[in-house]
Amino acid sequence: MSSSLLTSAGEVLVRTRDESFAELARRINALAARGPASVALSGGSTPKAFYAWAVANKALTAQVWERITWHVSDERCVPLASDDSNFGHAARGLLDPLQVPSARRCPWPVELAPAAAAEAYEASWRAQPGKAYDLCVLGLGDDSHIASLWPRCPLIGAPGLPRFVATEWPGRGWRLTITEVGLAQCGAVVVLVNGRSKAPALLSVCAGEYDPAQHPGQVLRALAHKVTWLADADAASSL
Q1: Could you give the C-alpha distances from 116 to 108, 119, 181, in angstroms and in order?
Q2: pLDDT tens for each residue of 124-154
Q3: Cα 13–chain centre separation
């Protein structure tokens, strides 16, 4: 049964996976109906399932392809053809099947070295001060990481950062990621959370003792008014 919970990290909508996908599609369609907008997708198995669902169900309107520019909130420093590329998965799973033109695709410039790629991506936003994505779609890791902000990541709480940076995740290589500054400048944030393995992380982010260095998803508490969690019953079982 669908339900809604208000938490310190935003509203949690408890939905089945397909209901969550329908809600995300509804929000993307509503953005496009209002005019040009930017949407950042995320990596992981749930977004890939959303792409397949959206294509199969023809869930996104023609206005979406005319008005939305597509990004990813974080990226590995690999070619788009790599199976590790977040934007690559979005392209192959969603943008290619729906024939989204290249002008509407805004991947990170992964052909550059990490620092240069982050600088070039940040520079592409400089004409829009105080703004990042109109809608940023995130996932939540079992360790409560969001984007490429992991437990004890030096970016968390660091002053003076731009919206987008490069960072080396120990053991996982270089990443390009949105920062807390960038998240604060997004119009809205939606987090997809599915599965019982995510229940402890969702509980820690929404109701645990505040320690964002250990539980990075807690940085969204500062943005709770514009954060929506689309969680299945298993993920929300501990709330």
Answers
A1: 11, 5, 19
A2: 999 888 899 999 999 999 999 999 999 999 9
A3: 17
In single-letter form, the type of residue at position 192 comes to L
CATH of the domain spanning 27-194, picked from 3.30.360.10, 3.40.640.10, 3.40.50.1360, 3.30.565.10:
3.40.50.1360
In this prediction the pTM is 0.96
For residue 1, what pLDDT is reported?
63
Decide: 161 and 181 in contact? Cβ < 8 Å: yes
Domain residue limits, the chain: 27-194
Coil/strand/helix, residue 37: strand
Q: State the Cα–Cα distance between residues 168 and 163, nearest whole angstrom.
A: 17
pLDDT in tens, 71-130: 999 999 999 999 999 999 999 999 999 999 999 999 999 999 999 999 999 999 998 888
